[in-house]
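We modelled the chain as a single entity of 95 amino acids. Its sequence is:
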Amino acid sequence: MKTRDIVVNKKTAQGIEIPLMAANLVMVITPKGYLMCGYLDIKTAEKMGDCAAVIRGVKTIDALLEGKVVEITTAAAAAGIKLGMTGIKALAKIS
């Protein structure tokens, strides 16, 4: 497992890469919400009331930050995250 601090808006988020069998599970977590790769389920995040956004096809934290948001929860939309936004811009909304 690889972790890395990411500073956005003078606040620190936690980037995580977990190697699994077929791909990496990649996330960036803040106290307000998180960005996740396609390995995790947006429907469950919605059901739990989480502020979450999905960026697919990524294998690293950097790719997650550079990629485009393809799915969001209701809470993420309320936080200002929009489809097509880059991961780093989405992260700024929840940092």
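As a brief sanity check on the tokenised model: Helices lie at 42-47, 61-66, 74-78, 87-93. The domain at 2-93 is CATH 3.30.1980.10 (Hypothetical protein Ta1206 fold).
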